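Fold this: NHL repeat-containing protein
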Amino acid sequence: MRALIQYTLIILSAIWLSCSDSSSPTPPANGGNEPLELTGFSPLSGKKGTVIKIQGKHFGTDAAKVSLQINGLKATINAVTDTEISALVPDKCGLGKLVLTVNGKEVASAAAFRYLYTATTSYFSGSGLGGYEDGTPQKSKFGTLYNIAMDSKGVMFAADLGNCMVRRIETDGSTSTVAGAASGGFKDGKGNQGLMKFPIGVELAPDGSIFVADHENHAIRQLFPDGTLTTVAGEPNRPGAADGGLASAQFKRPYGVKLDKTGVLWICDTENGLIRKLANSQVTTFAGSTPGYADGKLRDAKFYMPSYLNFDENGNVFIADKHNHCIRKITPDGMVTTFAGMPTHTGYRDGEAGQAMFNQPCNIQIDKLGNLYVNDLWNHCIRLVYPDGYVTTLAGKGETEGYEEGTGENALFKHPQGCTLDKDGNLFVTDSANQRIRKLTIE
């Protein structure tokens, strides 16, 4: 009898232990066969060095089986449990969803992570004194610098409106003159024999030539590598809005010029309030009607002093609509919308697309992740607009002019007119009223 009782107790103990173990199984190292779940993450935004915590189920415990991307960029996995992952966000990952992969199974987050960029502003070229002088960075003098473009070697070309010249800025900041003369005028020719009157926009072509928006001459000029300046379309004393061949087309104070991937030259015909295109020796009007403000189909839309345009990777066109104080967007299907800013309202405010405010945005550069870098002229700062339209201030202190180096709002500008991105994602800015070129190192 005693033996039977002992045997029964052994059996019951085994059953109890079995039930106890089954209630808290060890999670499979690779996540097992259960469906992968990503229920949330925190924080929703962060700067360089931010550690993100991801919550969910069935992550497993083997970090080697786990990978994470944020906006297509790989994050560094720090630690993994079956319900939480700790990871270091990739640098400069922009705005994008998380994509988690565990042992070949993939799941994406519902929300997007927003990377908070920081910019450190430093000196690059210019004495800070108005005038004209070529030479070393500290000796160089500029008139009023407007738009700027960079070639594949990092050499920049700037429209020096105040000196009626196109200037060349080397990678060490030293300067020389490509064409033009301080007297200004209108004349084709080489070097200082080629004359312009208030050149304002520059764009580099694949052959090394430079398209120039010759503002006060109402013309588009082309400057070749040997310094020869020619006229492409338009002429002084004949402003207008006529489309047609190069000899008959008219402009009225063109501002920004930009080549697309197919070689078409896009032109902000500023005082006409039009977006024009030059292709196959013909000038056509792409968008706009009369100066004003209206969204809609291409020719129903209205712009007020559009100053610059640029393209993202999806074929959208973004326009700095200067005197409407907003950023406009033209989609590939031909709809003009307001992307960020409060149209016709001047001010300074960061925030959601429809609540943010600008004061004469005048230039746009776009990086590979779709972030827009905007010169906010009369707010004396550089704004960053995310692909969802959210606006932040990258450098400068809104509505405060001055000259200071530093990070974020500690840097000060005075009427930043133009900007260009280099291959490493640094932004170079023509700080016009400070008579200098500044460099923003973005992290």
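The chain has two domains: 37-115, 119-442. DSSP finds one helix and 37 strands in the chain.
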